[in-house]
Design a protein that fits this description.
Order of helices and strands: EEEEEEEEEEEEEEEEE
Number of helices: 0
Strand order of the largest sheet: 11-17-15-14-12
Structural class: mainly beta
Oligomer: single chain
Distance between the termini: 125 Å
Largest sheet: 5 strands, mixed
Number of strands: 17
Radius of gyration: 28 Å
Length: 183
């Protein structure tokens, strides 16, 4: 007498929690999903223009949203697990500007300010193609005589093939408005 006995495969469940938003330029990080079967979980990114995955390590490559899917195909003892998908948001990195100064001026009843210097970007990731473009325009917060008056800067923006991965934080400078000397 012979009989074929087929053992039923066990089901398995993946645990893969929500992913926190990250910022472009952040370091690569490890995914920590697991299966109750103890079999290795594999991962895939739906948008490799935002994040790539090697093994369980995520590398951020651009701004946007991607879905990271954890899966486990099963083996001789376990059925394939139901995939678990989590959304990953990569936010733009804020760049700041240095190298600009506001010039002091004699009271003329206007808020126009003269900006001097050359704008330089701080915070660029690696050798990204991003630069600052435009002409600095300065505006005093008040036209009254005073010292250390805030000067806002406008007229600058980002350019370059990777500019979309960044936001630009324009500087706030300060300068003095002095009283006009009477004759």
């Amino acid at each position: 007498l012979s009989a074929d006995i087929t053992a039923a495969k066990s089901d398995q469940t993946i645990t893969f929690g929500a992913l926190s938003a990250v910022t472009y330029g952040d370091a690569a990080f490890a995914l920590t999903g697991s299966s109750d079967s103890a079999l290795t979980v594999s991962y895939a990114s739906s948008n490799t223009g935002v994040a790539t995955i090697s093994g369980s390590t995520v590398t951020i490559v651009g701004v946007g949203t991607t879905t990271i899917t954890a899966s486990q195909a099963g083996d001789a003892s376990y059925n394939a697990a139901t995939d678990v998908a989590q959304s990953l948001t990569v936010n733009a990195k804020a760049l700041t500007i240095t190298g600009l100064s506001a010039s002091n001026k004699i009271f003329d009843n206007t808020t126009s300010a003269t900006i001097t210097g050359t704008a330089s970007l701080v915070g660029i990731v690696g050798s990204d193609d991003v630069s600052v473009t435009g002409t600095s325009v300065g505006t005093f917060a008040s036209s009254s005589v005073g010292t250390g008056i805030s000067v806002s800067v406008t007229g600058l923006s980002l350019a370059g093939t990777t500019a979309g991965n960044y936001t630009l934080t324009l500087p706030t400078l300060s300068a003095d408005i002095t009283a006009a000397k009477s004759n």
